[in-house]
What does this fold into?
Amino acid sequence: MRLSAILVFGCIAATAAVDKSTDFGMRMVVDAYESVCWYEYLKQFPNTDNSAYQKCGTQSSQIQADALEEADGTEKDYFIKNLSSEMDKLPSDYEECSSLLASATPDYKKASRNDPLKDGGQKNYPFRGFSKCLMKTLEKRHGPQALKAVDDERISGSKSVTGALLERTNQWRALHGVEPLKLLKDLEEAAKEYTSELVMMDCKYKKSNSNHPNRKYKGKKTGEVLDSGNYVAFKFADSGYQIANNWYNEIKDYPFPEGITEENIKVYGKVSRFTQTVWKNTEYVGFAYSEFTDCNNFVTVARYYPTGNTKGGFQENVLPPKE
Ligand SMILES: *[C@@H]1O[C@H](CO)[C@@H](O)[C@H](O)[C@H]1NC(C)=O
It folds into this structure.
């Protein structure tokens, strides 16, 4: 995915004929800004907030693209002004970096995208002060592991959607004091199979028939959770975190301590993805994620074994979060 982002950027640069160093500097600023936004609102656990992430996670790329359209010598000013106005979407500690945006130094010899992360004071690169300030503030707030996460996941982009989905699912499970789920190939295959079926279903998605052989493992019914949506789709691993967070956020409607009973069964439809996520007795999972190319949308299928959400099992299997 990173590759295509870079290619798109390359195209814009070629047609707009903007000073190359300014152009490159903007890319670095956008990277730094989005990385901070990502860590603060999506990666950081358990203080994740999908909607805050979506507010700052994409806008800066748009600003860069718009700035490049100007291509008449005002692009740098446009970029600085518009990006400054986005700074209030980050936690207030970052505010002090804003003033550095204006002191952009467009000249550079050679720079790479992770320079702000590894800045030892030697290299010069465009918008250096600003990007470096963001990274230093991130490190001050969350320690060196935050910079490492940015480097691993955003610069090298080594995590898949389903990898992030599993990681986040198990983080939520740990918060409820239950064992992590293990991936099972058979469940993954079944999930993939059903995903392909859904993709052929004309932009609609629906629960599978629970008697279908595809829903069985070792002769027993498996649990199913579905999702569809366009979660900042160009950053694939991020979609996995956001999907898991969305499912988990159904906790707000879950009736602790009595759980789902005959009386409040109406609530079930609003919380079933949360309850399956943290269901104690479930041990295995298989995830599949696929694009509905014609529908500008994405679909996720998850299968669980043993199945969660069994009648009468809620109190025992859905534990309250640990303090
Ligand atoms: C940049 O700022 C101008 C003027 O304040 C505004 O009209 C425009 O929508 C902004 N562009 C972006 C991408 O935020």
Remarks:
- Residues 161-305 form a domain with the Pathogenesis-related Protein p14a fold (CATH 3.40.33.10).
- Residues 20-43 form the longest helix (24 residues).
- Strands lie at 182-183, 216-217, 220-221, 223-228, 284-292, 297-305.
